[in-house]
Amino acid sequence: MSMLRVVLVALLAVPAWAGAEALRCPDVSAVVQVGTCPSEAELTYTFGGYCGDNKRMYEIGDTVCESYENYRKAKNVVLWASADGQFEGYVSCDLPEPALRAAVLEHMTVSSKRGLTRVACGYSEGVLFAHRTRASCEINDAARCAADASACEADCQ
Questions:
Q1: In this predicted model, what pLDDT tens digit does every residue of 84-99 receive, in sequence order?
Q2: 157 vs 88: CA distance, rounded Å
Q3: Would you tell me how many other CB atoms lie within 10 Å of the CB of residue 66?
Q4: Under a CB-based contact definition with an 8 Å cutoff, are residues 103 and 123 in contact?
Q5: Which residues on neighbouring strands pair with residue 81, listed in sequence order?
Q6: Of 16, 26, 39, 120, which one has the greatest count of Cβ atoms within 10 A?
């Protein structure tokens, strides 16, 4: 009977630690480009379609359609992913690949909205990679993480 209790306790404990996951920011020297950058012709064509609706011209706070340069800055991006596929981020096609691979980790943040948690890693050059999950996450030793971004780790359960 006591062996049965041990087995039951062990089985009940499995879900508590089985879903735990420790996340560290990806090494940008190993990220992989997932898509392709849009051509100048594609950007010009989509600018007319996206910004052609007069409603967009009058949206408060939205400056994307105020000029082609603003539109190009917002839309001339391509998806990159970490080597393990856990983190993704849209990176400007104007940023040379060597500059991306040399970007330095600056911070890690965790935020939640409507049951979805986002673990974001910010790098120099304005690069951001994010991991999204339904699990609850928090940064381990936030003070140490704030002092040294390379020490950042988030636990998700």
A1: 999 999 999 999 999 9
A2: 20
A3: 12
A4: yes
A5: 32, 88
A6: 26
Task: State the pTM of this model.
Answer: 0.81
Residue 156 makes CB contacts below 8 A (sequence gap 6+) with 20, 21, 22, 23, 117, 119, 133, 135, 136, 137
DSSP string, 114-132: TTEEEEEEEEGGG-EEEEE
Q: How many Å apart are CA 95 and CA 102, to the nearest integer?
A: 11
Structure tokens at 106: 């600056």
How does pLDDT run across 28-70, given as a tens digit for each residue?
999 999 999 999 999 999 998 888 876 666 677 788 888 999 9
Which contiguous run of DSSP H or E holds residue 70?
A: helix 68-75
